[in-house]
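Morning, I've got a small favour to ask if you have a moment. I owe you a coffee for this, so here goes:
>
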Amino acid sequence: MKNEIINLLKELLKFKTIKGEKQEFKNIFKFIKNYLNNELFYTEYNFNGNTSCVISNTKDHNLDIIFSSHIDIVPANNYDFYEDNTNIYGRGTIDMKGSVAVLLKLINSVKTNKKIAIFITSDEEQDGNCTYELLKIYKTKLAIVPDGGTNFNLIKEEKGLYRLKLSIKTKSAHSSQPFNGENAITKIMNIYNKIITKYPLPKNENEYITSVNLSRLIGGTADNQVPDYAEMILDIRHTSSNSKKEILNFISALDKDLNIEILLEGAVFYTDLNNKDIKNYIEICKNILKKEIKIIGCESTSDAIYFSELNIPTIIMNPNGYYAHCPNEYVNKNSLYTLYKIYKKFIEGDENE
């Protein structure tokens, strides 16, 4: 079973599923459909030009469990993958084609009376709209999203997302006469420095605080001119301690000439640790992993927010892997099989004992 999951992951990694590669997405969804056994139901959807599929063991849209996943990845300089005795390395291994391989193997083989489905979307790395739209069609008692954390830690909270475009217009001048103008680039950088003074950047994953990443900086039109326009994109991941309103009010007050455009928003994710199904899931993990399950906050954002906004109890747990979106991204091979065993036990319970 472990080797089957690993081989399936290798097949999924062959597809360059980044934004704009329409044929690659078409090919991977065809591959997925052909992989499934004939007893399953496969339905494809398209939302705003992005393809998604739902794989289920029932025609019913009212389900017991939905597993939510995605096969899109962020761009890389190199899309090759390689392995050693322990891990598979490459773009998309932990985020999240490793877990997709687990889910495809699971639904192909699990025997249960529960009504289960897998969402596989292609826009999570953009805005997650496909999951939002699918939840207008499908209902569930519980969701499982293997897209956060590492090493089988259970995520109790994921940060909210706030993506802003900040721009400022000043006065241009000849670069030899800076006193006749006002440099828009340095002005907007001063604003950024004030923001990260208020919200210091976390030093490591254990420092669970609001973070503000300067994703893009644009300004100036000529080498010999004081720039009169500059803009920057801020990707803000905020904890429940800092609301979007608080952050926006602080930034707005920094400069009266600052223009702010909200590009993307995502809510803070919470999970209900008192839910009986989540408690049962934790106990199963403890028994299989032979350890206590750490319950932590996660700095990233995932499609889990769309479930929690509908008050659907949601589990976020990743296998062992790290460095998502980085050149050295990897997933541990043994942990994928462990994740499969956890899911299988959780779904089947005592049905087949």
In short: DSSP finds nine helices and 19 strands in the chain. Residues 10 and 81 are 8 Å apart (CA to CA). The first helix runs from residue 2 to 13.
